[in-house]
Design brief:
Enoyl-CoA_hydra/iso; ClpP/crotonase-like_dom_sf; 254 residues; lyase; Enoyl-CoA hydratase; globular; four-stranded mixed beta sheet
C-alpha cells in the first residue's frame, strides 16, 4: 500500500491505494512510518511524497475504520497519525509533498507535515472533518495556522470547504504549482536546494521551524547559536573560500 523507491539523491514515497483514492487506513499510516524510517537510513538529500494515479494524493482517513471504536482506540488512532507525521518534522533532509489531486483531511495533514508542498493545478485540498461532526486529529489544527495564520485556518477548519490550487498557493498553503507532472516538478524544486551542504540545510530548517514556538528575543538567540554552529563547519569554510576565489563551492556535508 506504500511504495518506497530511491532515485539518485532522492527518495520517493508513494501511497499506492488508488482504488480507495489512497485513503489512510491505520495500516497505511504504519507503512508510511516504516518507509520514512527506512529512508532515514539512505544517503539522500530530499524525500518526495505522492499518491498513485491522477485523481488523489490522499483522500483522507479510511472512514470505515473510524466507526464503532472505543474512546481509547480513538485516542490511539489520533496519536498514531500525529506520531508518524511528526517523523517528517525531524527527518534529516527536507520533504516535499507532490499533491497530484485531492488532499483532504488526513491527506492534507500529511502534506502539511512535509517541509514543502508542490501541487498540480487540478489539486483540491481541505479539512472537511467538521462535516462529519469531527475535527482534524493528525495535526491539522496545529500546522494549518502556522502556514496560513490563525483566522484563515479557523475559517478553513470550521467551514470544511474545498480549496483549489490557485487559492492554496495564494494563502501559502502550497509552496508552488506544477506546470506539468507534479512529481517531476517536485524533483526540479528539490534540485534547487539539494546541492547545498546538509549541515547548513539542517541548521536552517531548525532555526525556521523554531521561530513560531518562542518569543522573538529567544528566537534571535537560537538563530545566533545555530548560525555560529554553521560557521564552524567545513562546508562554511569552503563556501566562503569559493566566494572569494569566484568559483562554485564543493560542499562535502561536513
Amino acid at each position: 500500500m506504500v511504495k518506497l523507491l530511491r532515485e539518485g539523491a532522492l527518495a520517493l514515497l508513494t501511497l499506492d491505494r488508488p482504488e480507495a483514492l489512497n485513503a489512510l487506513s491505520f495500516a497505511v499510516i504504519r507503512d508510511i512510518g516504516a518507509a520514512i524510517d527506512e529512508a532515514a537510513g539512505w544517503d539522500i538529500r530530499a524525500l518526495i511524497l505522492t499518491g498513485t494515479g491522477e485523481k488523489a494524493f490522499c483522500a483522507g482517513a479510511d472512514i470505515k475504520e473510524l466507526v464503532g471504536r472505543s474512546l481509547m482506540d480513538e485516542r490511539a488512532g489520533s496519536e498514531l497519525g500525529q506520531r508518524v507525521f511528526a517523523k517528517l518534522d525531524s527527518f534529516k533532509v527536507p520533504s516535499i509533498a507532490a499533491i497530484n489531486g485531492y488532499a483532504f483531511g488526513g491527506g492534507l495533514e500529511l502534506a502539511m507535515a512535509c517541509t514543502f508542498r508542490v501541487a498540480s493545478s487540478k489539486a483540491r485540498v481541505g479539512l472537511p472533518e467538521i462535516k462529519l461532526g469531527l475535527i482534524p486529529g493528525y495535526g491539522g489544527t496545529q500546522r494549518l495556522p502556522r502556514l496560513v495564520g490563525e483566522a484563515r485556518a479557523a475559517e478553513i477548519v470550521l467551514t470544511g470547504r474545498t480549496i483549489d490550487a490557485e487559492e492554496a498557493l495564494a494563502i501559502g498553503l502550497v509552496t508552488r504549482l506544477a506546470d506539468g507532472d507534479v512529481v517531476e516538478a517536485a524533483k526540479a524544486f528539490a534540485a534547487e536546494f539539494t546541492g547545498y551542504g546538509l549541515p547548513a540545510l539542517a541548521l536552517a530548517r531548525a532555526a525556521v521551524r523554531r521561530a513560531l514556538d518562542v518569543p522573538l528575543d529567544e528566537g534571535l538567540r537560537i538563530e545566533a547559536d545555530l548560525s555560529t554552529l554553521a560557521y564552524r563547519t567545513e562546508d562554511a569554510a569552503e563556501g566562503l573560500t569559493a566566494f572569494i576565489e569566484k568559483r562554485k563551492p564543493q560542499f562535502r556535508d561536513k
